[in-house]
Amino acid sequence: MEYTIRPCTPADLDKLVQLCAQHAAYEQASYDPQGKKEKLHALLFTGHRPLHCLMVETAGLVIGYATYTFDVSTWDAAPFVYLDCLYIEEAFRNYGIGRVLMEQVKAAGEQQYCVNMQWQTPDFNEHAIRFYKRLGATDKNKVRFTLPLNTTA
User: How far apart are CA 82 and CA 102, in angstroms?
Assistant: First the structure.
C-alpha cells in the first residue's frame, strides 16, 4: 500500500475533526466536535503552536493522524515527547503505517533532545498494546485521572 505521511495543513482540519470523532468512538469515549476545528487551528497554526500533527494520506484520502506535544519530566529533569493520539481508519490498519508514525514522532523527540516518548491507550485496546510491545515499549501500572476545570475557553 502506498501512502504519504505529511504535516497537517489548515485544509485538513475538517477531516481531522472527523478522525478525532472516530478515534473517540473506538476508545469508547465521548467527543463533541463543536468548535474543535477552530480550537485545533489555534493550537496547530497560530502563536506558540503547542500541538504537532501528522496526517496519513493514500490515493488522495486522509486515513489517519498522529498528534504529539513536548513536555518536561521532573524526575528526569529533561523534556519528553508525548504522543497524544494515533489513529488509522480500520480498513487501513496492519500495513505498517502505525509503526512509521511512531518512528516519525520518535524522531521529532530526538531532534528536540527528549529523553523518552510517552503515550497511553485504554487497557481494553489489546491490539494496540500488542503493537506497542512489539515496538519494544513497556507499560506502567498507573491510573490516569481527569479533573474538569472551570474555564471560559
Answer: 11
Domain-by-domain residue ranges, the chain?
4-134
pTM of this prediction exceeds 0.70: yes
Check: CB of residue 83 under 8 Å from CB of residue 68.
yes
Cα–Cα distance, 140 to 132 (Å, whole number): 13
Cell 505529511 belongs to 6
Query: What's the Rg (C-alpha) of the chain?
Result: 16
Please state, in angstroms and rounded to a whole number, the distance separating the CA atoms of residues 72 and 39.
23
List beta partners, residue 71.
80
pLDDT tens string for the chain (153 positions)? 999 999 999 999 999 999 999 999 999 999 999 999 999 999 999 999 999 999 999 999 999 999 999 999 999 999 999 999 999 999 999 999 999 999 999 999 999 999 999 999 989 999 998 999 999 999 888 877 877 888 765
Per CATH, the number for 4-134 is 3.40.630.30
- The three cell numbers of residue 56 are 496519513
Longest dimension (CA), the chain: 46
